[in-house]
Amino acid sequence: MTRPPRPASARPAPFRPARLGLLLLVAGGAVALAGCLPSSQRELDRSVSAADSASVALAAAAPVDTLDVVWEASPALDLPTSLGWYGRGVAVVETQGGAARLLGADGADAGRVDLGGDYPYLAGVRGDTVVVLARGADQLRWAVPGRGVVRAVPAPPGATAALVTDSLMAVRTGGGSGEEAPPGAVEVLDEGGAVVARHALTGPPWRSIGFLRAWGGRLAALSGYRPVVDVLAPGAAPGAPLDTLALVGFASPQLTRSAQYVRGDVDEPPLLTSSAAPLGDRLFVLNLRGDHLRVDVYSRAGRLERVLVGAERSEEVYPLDLAVRETGGAFEIAVLLSRPPGLLQAPASRVVLYRWTPQPEPAPPPASP
Q1: Which of 153, 206, 210 is nearest to 186 (CA)?
Q2: Strand 80-86 vs strand 318-327: parallel, antiparallel, or unpaired?
Q3: CA dihedral 292, 293, 297, 303 (to 10 degrees)
Q4: Long-range contacts of 25-28 (CB under 8 A, 24+ apart)
Q5: 367 band by pLDDT with thresholds 50, 70 and 90
Q6: Which site in 2, 98, 264, 301 is 20 to 30 Å from 118, CA atoms measured?
């Protein structure tokens, strides 16, 4: 079992691979969570909230499509955590290795970018430049192939995730488990790393764990432990809180345990989703399952539109991150899957590029005369 990652209130301790390994095991071993605590030996209330119950009913009626595999790559990665598009290919950040591995349009090895260590996490890509948050050094770093780090600016102490686009720089701070966990917030930075606006995240600190994403003109703070996204509208006044967008139609075998945690019946919340990727008016959400890949597609209003499923996973590798782009009327979905080293278990990683071609919706039957 693992608790949600706990950022320090000041400078964060270096990220420990063992802690990430535990998180990965939680992500992939969701089906085993129900019986892993002593409290599971007694009869627990298995009811869920009315909103979760309605979401499950909606998900049961959602159309389901199967993802096609374009290519698979199994590079030797040193504790990968995040990925993003890089040209026609993909950049995968190795948090322990302190580098980004580049894969070409066909999944072949296309080189390596040195990120300078200090436990980097992907923040974005600008042209040929990989931008990362070095959590162990409280820095945002820009790095290019063959040159390594070419620029660095300070990040707020305790930043746990960052987003860098051509027009925006932001980090999230706070969050975590325990009574002393600081409230979560999103801080917008200028190009020199100075904070120009701070926006509070609503809800308990344990819910404020996840990546930052740009969704159209909005900034979205993901949550791994509840099916919600906190959204900052374009032009929001400095200090305005983020609005919470519920993902209506989210269904998971772990919603029961999530409700038990909220009621105080169990000590740990289950990880429901490890990442999401916006594209246009859609949000693609990794819905964690123990046996197959599942990506839920939501509208801009947060309503489930479609479920995408991949083949059964033959290895114990668990989805960590995804990136989505549209090409030729279809959608390409790159997914990073990994497992950490453990007792009698070697690490393994895989990047899979899927394609989804939406089918036209059937026309409604003509009205009766």
Answers
A1: 210
A2: unpaired
A3: 50
A4: 25/318, 25/339, 25/340, 25/342, 26/1, 26/2, 26/270, 26/271, 27/271, 27/274, 27/288, 27/318, 27/319, 27/320, 28/288, 28/290, 28/316, 28/317, 28/318, 28/339
A5: low
A6: 2
281's CB contacts (< 8 A; 6+ apart) are 216, 299, 300
Residues whose CB is less than 8 angstroms from the CB of residue 368 and which lie 6 or more positions away in sequence, other chains included: none
Two structure tokens written together for 207: 């819910």
CA distance 309 to 311: 7
Coil, strand or helix at 146? coil
The reported pTM is 0.87
Q: Estimate to the nearest angstrom the gap between the alpha carbon of 56 and the chain centroid.
A: 21
Q: For the residues 254-269, what does the mean pLDDT come to? A: 91
Burial class (CB in 10 A: 0-12, 13-18, 19+), 170: buried
User: Sign of torsion, CA 326 235 302 53?
Assistant: positive
Tokens of 276: 């999401």
Query: Band of the pLDDT at 48, cuts 50, 70, 90?
Result: confident
The one-letter code for the residue type at 316 is E
Instruction: Specify the DSSP element, H or E, that contains 50.
Output: helix 50-60
Residue 321's H or E segment, with its range, is: strand 318-327
The amino acid sitting at 221 is A
Specify the higher pLDDT residue, 20 or 71: 71
pLDDT, mean of residues 87-97: 96
Name 212's bridge partners.
221
In sequence order, the 6+-apart residues with CB closer than 8 A to the CB of 115 are 93, 98, 99, 100, 130, 132, 134, 141, 143, 148, 149
Nearest CA among 129, 181, 180, 178 for reference residue 152: 129
